[in-house]
């Protein structure tokens, strides 16, 4: 289990040969989707929070037009110029930065040569939005370097465009919006129809555990994009602009209009947005038991209806239910690997971790990595 401080690595002294002028830094916390799986691009509701782990981008302005990026944790570098923002064929991490630069250029921000150094203690591919944290941290760094500002929604769109164009993932706005609005001690209720964000205090009597299943999720292979296409097809067949306009009752009445697989995908999204609304009300009343049950229901829906869970994620949720202090568990993020989120009674955290890790090891056949976290933000 890893439960260390949020960020250490960027406190080092950087070589003056790389940072030719006073460096500036931008940081961004990772995020966890607490409830609201694949609802963002359907104009639905999501409950999310920032985690304690983060990505930092430190940089300086150059006197020429060169771009030099260094990923310290990967021990890799990339070099190019501001005239050529073509995606790199083998440095995916650099592509996210290039995507940000492309988005800024489209919005009339003059590009200049820069040195950037990236450091992170966010585990990649674990469902904590390491890519969105990188794009947001990059934007914050560049705003400090180039002395410009953009509203959060525009920053989120730039991050989304970078994923679409440079990573091939047709993601929604959830990840960057959640990261940009992350607030310590609060969950964020994000409405992707009105684009409003509400902060809801999270009770100190419970905590979260995040567990990695050991299989990194790779959304570029088409599974994520297929789910999104299915949702768009469901909305088209139902004659609505998005699945946000559909209620569980109206979907049931229109079941015959949809092919079975499309119906199952829509059923998950429509019921998930309904769960988020109910969960927000329960959280405001301090009903963590009822809140946790909705997390369990969400995972069952991802397993049966949306089919973006995998056996390893199911095993982690099963192990959680057999552990003292369990209130709820579900996959978090895009699915197909990554992590699970566990809501645990704070007074029983130690007993939960001992039992959970033992039971998970039995089911998976190997030890797991997990850590505790509470809602965090900049």
List its traits.
disordered N terminus, Alpha-Beta Plaits, 7-stranded mixed sheet, 2 domains, 4-stranded antiparallel sheet, 378 residues, Ribosomal Protein S5, domain 2, alpha+beta, 10 helices, globular
Describe this structure in words.
- With 378 residues, the chain is an alpha+beta fold.
- The chain has two domains: 9-35 and 50-183, 2-Layer Sandwich (Ribosomal Protein S5, domain 2); 202-373, 2-Layer Sandwich (Alpha-Beta Plaits), CATH 3.30.70.890.
- Helix content is 40%, strand content 23%.
- The chain has helices at 92-106, 130-146, 152-167, 174-181, 223-238, 248-253, 260-285, 288-306, 311-321, 349-364; strands at 24-35, 45-61, 66-71, 76-81, 114-120, 186-191, 196-201, 206-212, 326-332, 339-345, 369-373.
- Strands 1, 2, 3, 4, 5, 6 and 7 form a seven-stranded mixed beta sheet that branches.
- A hairpin with a 4-residue loop joins strand 6 (186-191) and strand 7.
- Helix 1 (92-106) packs across helix 2 (130-146), helix 2 packs across helix 4 and helix 5 (223-238) packs across helix 7.
- The two termini are 24 Å apart.
């Amino acid at each position: 289990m890893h439960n260390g401080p949020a960020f250490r690595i960027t406190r080092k002294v950087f070589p003056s040969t790389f940072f030719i002028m006073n460096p500036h830094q931008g940081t961004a916390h990772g995020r966890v989707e607490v409830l609201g799986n694949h609802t963002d691009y359907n104009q639905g509701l999501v409950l999310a929070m920032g985690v304690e782990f983060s990505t930092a981008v430190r940089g300086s302005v150059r006197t020429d037009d060169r771009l030099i990026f260094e990923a310290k944790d990967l021990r890799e570098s990339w070099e190019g110029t501001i005239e050529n923002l073509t995606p790199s064929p083998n440095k995916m991490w650099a592509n996210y930065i290039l995507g940000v630069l492309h988005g800024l250029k489209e919005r009339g921000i003059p590009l200049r040569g820069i040195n950037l150094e990236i450091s992170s203690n966010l585990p990649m591919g674990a469902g904590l939005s390491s890519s969105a944290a990188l794009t947001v941290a990059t934007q914050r760094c560049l705003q400090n370097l180039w002395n410009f500002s953009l509203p959060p929604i525009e920053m989120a769109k730039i991050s989304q465009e970078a994923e679409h164009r440079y990573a091939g993932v047709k993601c929604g706005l959830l990840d960057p919006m959640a990261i940009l609005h992350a607030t310590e001690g609060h969950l964020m209720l994000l409405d992707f129809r009105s684009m409003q964000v509400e902060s809801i205090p999270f009770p100190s009597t419970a905590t979260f555990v995040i567990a990695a299943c050991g299989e990194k999720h790779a959304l570029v292979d088409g599974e994520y994009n297929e789910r999104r296409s299915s949702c768009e097809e469901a909305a088209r067949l139902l004659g609505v602009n998005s699945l946000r306009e559909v209620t569980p009752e109206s979907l049931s009445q229109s079941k015959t209009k949809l092919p079975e697989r499309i119906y199952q995908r829509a059923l998950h999204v429509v019921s998930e947005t309904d769960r988020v609304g109910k969960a927000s009300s329960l959280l405001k009343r301090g009903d963590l038991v009822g809140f946790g049950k909705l997390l369990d229901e969400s995972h069952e829906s991802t397993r049966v209806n949306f089919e973006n869970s995998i056996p390893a994620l199911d095993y982690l949720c099963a192990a959680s239910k057999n552990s003292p202090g369990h209130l709820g568990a579900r996959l978090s993020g895009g699915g197909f690997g990554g992590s699970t989120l566990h809501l645990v009674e704070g007074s029983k955290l130690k007993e939960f971790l001992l039992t959970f890790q033992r039971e998970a090891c039995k089911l998976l056949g190997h030890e797991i990595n997990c850590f505790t976290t509470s809602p965090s933000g900049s």
